[in-house]
Specification:
alpha+beta, 180 residues, single chain, 18% helix, three-stranded antiparallel sheet
């Protein structure tokens, strides 16, 4: 039986294309970036974190990080009942930079073995202002911040700003892979 020449030409073309098929991509060389590490308090111990994104344009410009307005959608709406589930937790930022921030949660430990169900790297910013006539002191946990508010030492103002600040080294000193 004679095979039509068009079929032979198609078969030859297909066979030739096999050699032209792209080979699987080679593994990309390992790359890294360097970001400034900051510290915050969590339950009386320091944790290291990085900041990458924030929903507020002015804060993004000041910090040199990504302005991501959509992050604001991750928080529970203002006025929600305490305990309303959402993707954020609270970070207490001192308005006059009297001290480093206080995180309400952190991974325990940092990395794949984290057991904290409360931790989220997305934070709703709560501004902390010392009341006139009150002496600022170190507040190193959410409990201490809330106790200071209860005593009338500080005023807390929940903002609508959401910031992405993943903890890269937990209070126990364990860090993510590559953290030195």
């Amino acid at each position: 039986m004679r095979v039509p020449s068009i079929v032979l030409a198609a078969a030859a073309l297909a066979a030739g294309c096999v050699g032209l098929a792209p080979s699987p991509p080679a593994a990309a060389p390992a790359r890294s970036v360097s970001l400034p590490v900051q510290q915050a308090w969590f339950e009386g111990r320091r944790v290291d974190y990085i900041s990458t994104d924030v929903s507020d344009a002015a804060m993004a410009s000041m910090m040199g990080i990504n302005h991501v307005p959509q992050l604001a959608a991750a928080a529970a709406p203002a006025g929600s009942l305490p305990g309303t589930r959402n993707a954020t937790d609270r970070v207490y930022k001192f308005s006059k930079d009297e001290q480093i921030a206080v995180f309400a949660s952190a991974p325990l430990p940092a990395g794949a073995d984290n057991t904290s169900r409360a931790y989220s790297p997305l934070w709703v910013v709560v501004m902390v202002d010392w009341v006139a006539g009150r002496t600022p002191r170190g507040l190193v946990s959410e409990e201490a911040v809330l106790a200071a508010e209860e005593k009338g030492d500080v005023k807390l103002t929940r903002t609508s700003i959401v910031i992405n600040c993943p903890v890269v080294r937990s209070a126990d000193g364990r860090g993510l892979r590559g953290v030195r």
